[in-house]
Design goal:
mainly alpha, 0% strand, flat, 43% helix
């Protein structure tokens, strides 16, 4: 057997510059706008959660989510768009705490209804 420096295995790399069907957003089940809104939502929730769930006041994260929520809020928006796990955490937190959020931070924005045409 010879020792060949080239591996016989092939690896598929994700090209995030490709604007077509991006695997990253498919994994996170969102698009870029939804992820940006989720990041803004977690930032807003962390700012409201000053007591880190010490009091039951109805603001911010609950006790089990406060650590991960504040860590996710410290991440930059660029990191959110590059890291699949961070994106999934941001989306899950934003969807879980949607009742506390202002309408502009809702990840799943309601689609405007199409007016019916009288024919």
């Amino acid at each position: 057997m010879t020792t060949d420096p080239v591996s016989p295995h092939y690896f598929v790399l994700l090209n995030r510059k490709y604007r077509g069907s991006n695997l990253f957003y498919s994994i996170a089940q969102c698009d870029a706008d939804q992820l940006t809104r989720a990041w803004n939502a977690v930032q807003w929730l962390a700012a409201k959660d000053l007591d880190h769930a010490a009091d039951a006041n109805g603001f911010g994260f609950n006790k089990s989510d406060t650590t991960i929520g504040h860590r996710a809020a410290r991440a930059s928006l660029v990191a959110a768009h590059r890291n699949e796990m961070l994106a999934i955490v941001l989306l899950k937190l934003a969807r879980k705490y949607r009742r506390q959020l202002p309408p502009r931070y809702l990840v799943d924005q309601p689609q405007p209804c199409q007016p019916k045409l009288d024919v």
